[in-house]
Design brief:
The protein is an alpha/beta fold. The protein has two domains: 122 residues, P-loop containing nucleotide triphosphate hydrolases (Rossmann fold, 3-Layer(aba) Sandwich), CATH 3.40.50; 67 residues, Helicase, Ruva Protein, domain 3. The strands form two sheets. Strands 5-6-7-4-8 form a five-stranded parallel beta sheet. The protein has a three-stranded antiparallel beta sheet with strand order 1-2-3. Strand 5, helix 3 and strand 6 form a beta-alpha-beta unit. The protein is elongated and about 60 Å long.
Length: 232
């Protein structure tokens, strides 16, 4: 379902949002709409396998969770991919492997898995930070197969999307924030969904503990020294 984001006063950004099936709402913007479109197209995919590529914090794992629920997909951790794990997957309906470019895996097993997906007709979704041309792959056949995979990019979140996420998360916590405060934060924020979630949580905690409203001053204090763990 797509509907506009609700926000107090004039803090309204006309971005669609979707229920993430057990996770928080997923906001759609130009930076991620291609990946969202692929998720929505399942099971009528033009290819059996797709690779979603994007930087840390762009929402790859979030969309993967949406697809996992939608497709009733099994999940395989890349480092657990070996010759013993392939045969049981022959009856899979759908399969997801995240962070395929960050985990060590058996190259021959991945090559056989790609062939098995094609032979048995089950859908396969991979996520990674970089496209296959940047990976170190020793097996020539696998290298060729990976480079032929349809790659769906997620770009770093744009300012419009990050503002919308800020507003939504503040609303979820019933925190009223003035537009000029949102603009102040937007000029100084990291381009990461994880950053926004952590920031809003810390602002909420700081405001409650000090009995203060969320102002530019409070936002500035929380911004100082804020760091976000590396994530997908």
């Amino acid at each position: 379902m797509i509907s506009p984001v609700e926000a107090p006063e004039q803090l309204v950004l006309d971005l669609p949002h979707r229920e993430a099936r057990g996770a928080e709402d997923f906001l759609v913007s130009q930076c991620n709409e291609a990946a969202v479109r692929i998720i929505d197209q399942w099971p009528n995919w033009p290819n059996l396998a797709f690779l979603i590529v994007g930087p840390p914090g762009c929402g790859k794992s979030h969309l993967a969770n949406v697809w996992r629920s939608l497709a009733e997909a099994d999940e395989l951790i890349a480092r657990d991919l070996d010759h013993t794990s392939i045969a049981p997957l022959a009856n899979a309906k759908a399969l997801i492997i995240e962070d395929i470019d960050r985990e060590p895996y058996d190259e021959t097993a991945l090559f056989h898995l790609l062939n098995l997906s094609k032979e048995k007709g089950f859908s396969l979704l991979l996520t990674a930070r970089t496209p296959p041309g940047h990976w170190t792959v020793s097996l020539p056949d696998l290298r060729s197969r990976l480079r032929s995979l349809p790659v769906v990019p997620i770009d770093p979140p744009d300012e419009t999307l990050l503002k919308a996420v800020l507003i939504k998360l503040f609303n979820d916590r019933q925190i009223i924030v003035s537009p000029h405060v949102v603009d102040f934060i937007a000029l100084r924020m990291e381009r990461s969904m994880d950053w926004v979630r952590i920031f809003v949580g810390r602002v909420d905690k700081a405001a409650l503990s000090a009995g203060r409203k969320v102002t530019r001053q409070l936002a500035s204090e929380v911004l100082t020294g804020l760091s976000v763990p590396d994530s997908a």
